[in-house]
Structure formats: structure tokens, C-alpha cells
Design brief:
Distance between the termini of chain B: 41 Å
Radius of gyration of chain B: 13 Å
Shape of chain B: globular
Radius of gyration of chain A: 13 Å
Structural class of chain A: mainly beta
Helix content of chain A: under 10%
Number of strands of chain B: 11
Order of helices and strands of chain B: EEEEEEEEEEE
Number of strands of chain A: 11
Strand content of chain B: over 45%
Largest sheet of chain A: 7 strands, mixed
Oligomer: heterodimer
Chain lengths: 116, 114
């Protein structure tokens, strides 16, 4: 297993377009998380899945954002009608347990979104 | 609600010198505390974590941190800096037990001078 994979690594899109990012977690991890990191800031929690169930969503996740994890494997994060304020690094992480247990989170390298 | 404040967005030390990165937390429940490191164009990697066992926690790459409840602090130290330690460091807090969400500080960029 090569860790958590995110695709694409970089995405440039025009304002108003829709974008979709993919995250492939470590295969045996049942928990998957999305975070957003803007320049000069720490990551901010967006949403969390346990298997295919989306169990928590941040208020940061507006109606334009939707995340899915069909079959409890890979996950997608879609942003509709992108705005310049959506420009950020989108990080995915997976784990076997809560962050405090075991090995904690394993993060992917992120998808950097630039909205022009 | 939980929050983390990292004092100093940028710290610069000489190679071989002590590294001290400061983190103060706020939490209404007993916290679990973490330090992560992020190298350029990479994801975050866990350095160490405090989960209510020993207050002095040792992590990877020679780093350690001490939980001080009276000071609500969890500062990260390394006795002797190495050039490879140059990176962004993030302190984070979560609630106890099965809490899933991490709340991160804004990060401290560590620069090592030769």
C-alpha cells in the first residue's frame, strides 16, 4: 500500500466551474477525512466518513460542497460554482481509529485548487 | 469548543541549536494534543501525540513535547536542530475518546541556518 493518494495534485479552474477531487485511502482504513488548508493557515476540518456513512460535516462545507464515499472505499469531494475563496489545498486523511488511537491519521499530499 | 494558538509563525535557529516551538491550547474537556510536520508539497506527518498518559511525550526524529495542564501548553522541543528539520509544524487538539476532528493551529515555519 502506497499510502493515501489524491488526484489531481493541482487543479486550475475558472470561477463558476465545477470541480471534483478524488481520494484513495489506505485500503484497510475505514475512516476518511477531508480538510482544507489555505495559505499560512492550519488545516480546517470539512467532513468525516466512517465506511460509507458521512457522520460529520463542518459549517465550512457550504451547499456548494458535497462529498461521497460510495462502498466505503475512495471518496470524492465536489465543489460546484467555484469561487475565488475556494482556492486552497484540499487534504484527505484516513485512519483505522480516532486521531488519538493507534497510528492516528495518514494524510495524502493534497490537491491544490486555484480558482481564477 | 477547542482551539490552539501557536506563538510565532516563523522560528529560525542555527544548526545544532535548541528548537522550541510553542503551542497553547483551549479546551473544555480533557484534550488530546498532537504535533504534525509538513514538508513542502507533502501531506502532514504525525510527530507525536499526548493522550493522557505520560506528560512528557517522545516522538520521531528526536522531538519531544511536554503537556503542562497548569499552563495549558504543549511546546515542542528538540535539543539539536538539523538541516532536515526545516518544515512547517502544526499543533492540534482533539477531544478525548472517540473524537474524530482535529483542530489545528496556524502553523510555525521552522528555518535552520547553517
Amino acid at each position: 500500500d502506497t499510502g493515501v493518494s489524491q488526484d489531481p495534485r493541482h487543479k486550475i479552474t475558472k470561477r463558476g466551474q465545477n470541480v471534483t477531487f478524488r481520494c484513495d485511502p489506505i485500503s484497510e482504513h475505514n475512516r476518511l477525512y477531508w480538510y482544507r488548508q489555505t495559505l499560512g493557515q492550519g488545516p480546517e476540518f470539512l467532513t468525516y466518513f466512517q465506511n460509507e456513512a458521512q457522520l460529520e460535516k463542518s459549517r465550512l462545507l457550504s451547499d456548494r460542497f458535497s462529498a461521497e464515499r460510495p462502498k466505503g472505499s475512495f471518496s470524492t469531494l465536489e465543489i460546484q460554482r467555484t469561487e475565488q475563496g475556494d482556492s486552497a489545498m484540499y487534504l484527505c486523511a484516513s485512519s483505522l481509529s480516532s486521531p488519538a488511537g493507534g497510528e492516528g491519521y495518514t494524510f495524502g499530499s493534497g490537491t491544490r485548487l486555484t480558482v481564477v | 469548543a477547542q482551539s490552539v494558538t501557536q506563538l510565532g509563525s516563523h522560528v529560525s535557529v542555527s544548526e545544532g541549536a535548541l528548537v522550541l516551538l510553542r503551542c497553547n491550547y483551549s479546551s473544555s474537556v480533557p484534550p488530546y494534543l498532537f504535533w504534525y510536520v509538513q514538508y513542502p508539497n507533502q501531506g502532514l506527518q504525525l510527530l507525536l501525540k499526548y493522550t493522557s498518559a505520560a506528560t512528557l511525550v517522545k516522538g520521531i526524529n528526536g522531538f519531544e513535547a511536554e503537556f503542562k495542564k497548569s499552563e495549558t501548553s504543549f511546546h515542542l522541543t528538540k535539543p539539536s536542530a538539523h538541516m532536515s528539520d526545516a518544515a512547517e509544524y502544526f499543533c492540534a487538539v482533539s477531544g478525548p475518546g472517540g473524537a474524530q476532528k482535529l483542530v489545528f493551529g496556524q502553523g510555525t515555519r521552522l528555518t535552520i541556518n547553517p
